Amino acid sequence: MSVRHRSANGGRSRLRAAVPILIMVSLASLSGAQIAHADPPPPAQTMTAAQARGSGSAVGVIKHSERGGQVLELRLPLPRISISGLPAREQARRAAARYLDNASNGAVAVADSMGDPGAGLLISLPDGSQAHTALAGVTGAAFAADGSWLAAVDSRGRLWRIEAKTGAASQLAQGPFMGSIHFTRAGELLLVEAASTEAPFPSVVVRFSPATRRSVFVDHEDGFVFSASELSDASVAVTAHVFGGGVEVRRVTQGSSERLASLDSRAIDASLSDDGSRIAYSVAGTVFLLDVAKGSTDRLARGEMPRVAHDGGSLLVLRDGQTALLAADGTQLDQFSTAAVGWASCEGRCQP
Hints:
globular
């Protein structure tokens, strides 16, 4: 389960501040996530596979069987706005961040571009057909278990339900939510809610029911929450930058919270194995892997944006605009020529 911490252009950064009044306001707003005034849905359109190829919007998907599971390598259409003037490292990070999620049925969700407030959401289906939703500035998306729909957050922090086959959108909640979106095995959503998208601190974790459109408080950290995701034992892992401290990963179980690991204060891009036993992160262009049980951290290799395999035995690392597959000891197992590479969905049954 990977967490992508984007640059200032993409909307995430590590923050240090103490705003107690804002904490109270943010917590008080979490009695529910009802929609006060639903906004009109963004327009959607569909394309056949032939139309997608003809328009240049087709998404190529190459499947690789690797240690740790199946890897999907995407060949993406050009971004909506050219990023050729950006540094190569930023171009690669944005390309990798465009790959939002994949479904167990083979569908993939891709952002038109990153750092672009007008970018929409593209859903490529297994037969090559597509659905596109003009969801302005999509920051995150996740498929439901059956792949029939996605939950997505736009640049204003609003939460939407997107039908995979048609792209039709209906608003679920106003938020504002950040781009971290994860489904639980029970079909609920783990979301990070903030006071505003412009000042996303402090932030809290909520469990949102798409059926009732109500949210329940899960955890609050005195800082900026990067992400929250469900572990294999149904506990929730929360990664946050704590005010006055560093980056911590905490395990929340039935209302109680315990520290799982303390990372380098400069850590970004944290990614956890499904059982939380291994945590990868990057610091200043170097990838580290922490073994929670041993309490040891290994410096693996040059790179960033690590994505740990479901079983924790290997990881994908962005490096020089391409993606390397590394073993847990840092040995390179494979190399992919694109930045948009990720682990295929394992339908909630990822543990050996």
